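Final report, Chapter 2: Outcomes

The project's central promise was a pipeline that accepts a single protein chain and returns its three-dimensional structure in a standardized token representation, suitable for archiving and comparison. That pipeline is now operational. To close this chapter, we reproduce one record exactly as it appears in the project archive, with the input sequence first and the structure output second.
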Amino acid sequence: MAKITKSRISGKDASYVAMAAGKYPPVQIDGPDDPSQSQKATETTPNLPAPADGAPEADRQRKAPPRVRKPSPIHNQYLAPTADLESYRAQLREAFGNTMSDEFVNVMLGKLIEALKPNPFDQLEEATLNSALAIIASARCQSELEALMAVEIVATGFAGLRFLRQSQHSMTEDYIRTYGPYANQLLRLHLDLIQALDRHRRGHKQTVEVRHVHVHDGGQAVVGIVNASKAEGEPKNDIRPHASGRHSAATDKSG
């Protein structure tokens, strides 16, 4: 009878993981090496497609997301793309939920880099980091909590794509069976976090829009919540405009 072995992480490996996580302090962005070649901290994105007719004014001219210069994909050196550090920090604070805390921005940048570069010896390209910052800026966070959720959305999305790539390595069943389920779970969590952010912004309110209700001659219609009475077994109608629950339309025809 074959012996069944359970996979587990040893204490030694867990210690190495904890020590590696401690190598990701908050990120402090320094000024550029050559201020003469720096760009403006706030500028409109060039070469955008023409806005559609009737588009909101806010979407007709978008600001470029904040960027970070990373001279080396190996070394942990992060530079601002402009010599105007105050304007640049203000742009970062706006992207991370309009926060008033530079420390919060530094910690969130550290967590973002930790998610994109799980191993201290991994490489992180400048384009990858700036793509993640662009996603966070596109969320238009209005609080620190929303900024944290945006970082979690980016982390799970990039991690899911990483495992999805690993599952297709050599296109063999072993890789698909090993990495595929993790990719599926991470991408599902990614979508759940997006929905959670949307629910948080809506304040857990549900809106039901009734576009067409046809009531013929001699008929009556009720739009609202129709609950069955437990005591008498008769329908109890609740026509509050914003009541939560299942909404339905009941029509009673006579004659």
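Archive annotation: The chain has two domains: 22-33+63-202, 219-253.
This record, like all others produced under the grant, will remain available to the consortium after the project formally closes.
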